[in-house]
Fold this sequence. Notes:
By secondary structure, the chain is α+β, with helices and mostly antiparallel strands. Helix content is about 30%, strand content about 20%.
Amino acid sequence: MTTSTSGRAAPERRFDLAIIGGGIVGCAIARELSRYDLDTVLIERAADVGFGTSKANSGIIHAGHHAAIGSLKGRLEWAGNRMWGALAEELGISFDRVGDLTVAFDADEVAILRELCERAEERGVTGVEMWGQARVQDEEPALSDEVLAAVHGPTAGVVNPYEACFALADDAVANGVTLQLDALVTGIARTSGGFSVGTTRGEFGADVIVNAAGLAADRVEAMVGLETFRLTGRKGEEYLLDKRLRGMVKRIIFPCPTPTSKGILVIPTFDGTLMVGPTAHPAGDRDDTTTTADGAREVFESVQRLVPGISAGDCIAEFAGVRAVTDTGDFVVGATEVPGFVNAAGIQSPGLTAAPAIAELIRDDLVAHGLDLRRKERWVAPSLPPTPMRSSDRTEQIERSAADPAFGRVICRCELVTEGEVVDAIERGGHTLDGIKFRTRAGMGRCQGSFCTWRVMELIASELGMPIAEVTKRGGGSWMVLDRDQFHDERSGEPVEVGVSP
Length: 502
Ligand SMILES: Cc1cc2nc3c(=O)[nH]c(=O)nc-3n(C[C@H](O)[C@H](O)[C@H](O)COP(=O)(O)OP(=O)(O)OC[C@H]3O[C@@H](n4cnc5c(N)ncnc54)[C@H](O)[C@@H]3O)c2cc1C
């Protein structure tokens, strides 16, 4: 099955529903609505789904007690949390309820932790309890011995967010949703039947629009003449640590929260790598995903107070994501005064956690506003992705590589990804280096792609029949070969064409 359907949707084609933005929110909405008899298009400007904020976050399914009582994001955090177990099982994606600990260093912080416990009780979040110093040290010996107490939230979990986006989109496409990638929405005109959505890939007619455009949701709203919220970007830098620190902490470690931030965390990711971050600072430019020396200093100073054994020298990779923050500080979900134009906007943290609950809220909102949703008689169950070779047992590895020798040829040595798995990821829609990296983990390990990048590029070029010089990191102009016109075979001096290695 493929999610890469660039160019599939014909210009002027009419849909019942257009979802703008293929992040975790748009993908979850597309998948939820694919259960109903609707002709839906999911329009994404990037080369793949999940390439916006949804790929650049902490990957935490928050426990349910972190966001304030009375807020929509608080309600949807807990509702979403409870959906992720079943959802991950249905989609066959990584998810582990590792739990979290929010720690206190002094009596004032202990008082704040008590408020967290009260919030959990009021919201009905299960299992949240305060642990004393001895229990904390016993359960998490790498934590600073100055930690006095901690709140344990057993419902917190970790996922690979990009994997979730791909799986949701694959499932939606398998159930009839048209996915239009590489299509920037540039304007929306109101027509007698609804809307005409202008994109860089042609026009799409739609009766209803769901605006899930993340950091551009205010601009998309403005296209129908609305200005119901103001959006600013808040950047978060994250740092991935070497796998030798695997197991140093078992749970997600939070400092005591402040009124404006959950703080800088230590996160045991699903794949075993520890991650530390994120920072939270206003982003002048919403597309600014650079990391900075100041950010690194802030992150490592903060987390060393929590877990003294962590060092900046263990960092193998870094990235930043930008949260879409509204002036109300809350999510903006639901119908607007423009009939048929619905917002799923301002989805800052915990938007990953809340995404499946946001999708249900949008569905209910559409019904409340008169959309006739009839459940399909037949809804195709997800086709589960194959188990990675690195986590298959020895017998299975031998059997698979005997059946297809490409599964015996390791391409990424750090993460043990085979050629067969890269080819499979290309067949499932990956057509950029990041698309393959996020589907297989090739290039995510200690050497950060030093060994496998070229080989993955060769496979993309040969499988898709394209010149190797046209392979990009993440679509658009993110070429891997900069001097493309001058790209020649080192030995013959001839220009390199379709998928031929120099
Ligand atoms: C550093 C950081 C850490 C975080 N950690 C967590 C966490 O641990 N747990 C959690 O629950 N949440 C977390 N979040 C929040 C979470 O990542 C977001 O809430 C979530 O990803 C938002 O998803 P989205 O689909 O709304 O936005 P996006 O993922 O940004 O998707 C919007 C999509 O719309 C597309 N788009 C925009 N404009 C157009 C246009 N004109 N035409 C077509 N397409 C368009 C974009 O390309 C993009 O793909 C974190 C966020 C950050 C930045």
